[in-house]
Amino acid sequence: MRQDLKNLFFRSLPWIIPVLVGVMVYIYWPYTPRTMSVVVVEEPEQRMLTGEAPWVKKGYVITPLAAFSIRAKVLHTRQYRWDRGAELSPIDLALGWGLMSDPRLLEKITIEQSNRWYFWRYDEPLPINNEYIIAHSANMHMIPANDEVRALLLSARPNEIVSLNGYLVKVVANDGYTWASSLSRTDTGAGSCELVWVENASIEK
Questions:
Q1: Hey, what's the torsion of the CAs at 14, 16, 19, 20, to 10 degrees?
Q2: Is the separation of the CB atoms in 198 and 156 below 8 Å?
Q3: Structural domain includes residue 39
Q4: For residue 161, what are the contacts with CB-CB under 8 A and spacing of at least 6?
Q5: Which domain holds residue 15?
Q6: Is 146 among the domain residues?
Q7: Per-residue pLDDT of the chain (205 residues; tens, 9 = 90+)
Q8: β-strand 194-204 against 137-144: which pairing, if any?
Q9: Against a cut of 0.70, is the pTM above it?
Q10: Cβ neighbours of residue 134 under 8 Å, at least 6 residues apart?
Q11: What do you get for the CA distance between the two ends of the chain, in Å?
Q12: Residue 163 · residue 204 · CB < 8 Å
């Protein structure tokens, strides 16, 4: 019996070894942007607008600055209830596209949100630089156009793929309060987040 098992083992070696090598390569081989599995390849689409008529919601005057659409991976979500913007924008979505939607890369990046900001950090070298991360991820303040869109946005979870269509907007209140969207994907610091009026939204599970 023991000899039979030994013979079976040696007969199996020709296919066992390649399988083991393949598994080890998959787990340990240093990956490059060329070998990453990109989930979302599309860049966000933005078309600047001029002279568009504003509208009013909950006492705020909302002016569209650019038509905007995006398909991206949800990196993190944060709901807001008590800050000044919560009445209009109950949730921020941190979104990623390009290599910032690759699951193996994202495993190495810690992502957090707080006080309408989006933070990321990593402890080991990545095959992309900080400029790439900035240009391919963003914290976006969501203003749902209706209750259906609101419910869908609030249901979004990390690692899901969302598609959003609407406008980048500027919000002005009667007391002078102003909240304006960034119009660039490469800026940082205060004012660098997108303020998105979302008219249509869908989630790919």
A1: -120
A2: no
A3: no
A4: 39, 40, 71, 72, 73, 74, 101, 203, 204
A5: 1-30
A6: yes
A7: 545 545 544 565 555 554 444 444 344 444 444 434 558 999 999 999 998 999 999 999 999 999 999 999 999 999 999 999 999 999 999 999 999 999 999 999 999 999 999 999 999 999 999 999 999 999 999 999 999 999 999 999 999 999 999 999 999 999 999 999 999 999 888 889 999 999 999 999 6
A8: parallel
A9: yes
A10: 185, 186, 188
A11: 50
A12: yes
Total count of domains within the chain: 2
Whether residue 16 is found in the same domain as residue 95:
no
Do 60 and 108 lie in one domain? The reply is: yes
Residues 174, 145 share a domain: yes
- Taking alpha carbons only, the member of 152, 184, 186, 151 closest to residue 168 is 184
Tokens of 36: 């990453």
- 110: its two tokens: 């810690």
Q: Which pair of tokens denotes residue 52? A: 């568009």
Radius of gyration of the chain from its Cα atoms, rounded to whole angstroms: 23
Asked, for residue 35, whether it belongs to a domain, the answer is no
Q: Which residue has the tokens 């009667």?
A: 174
Report which residue type is found at 50.
T
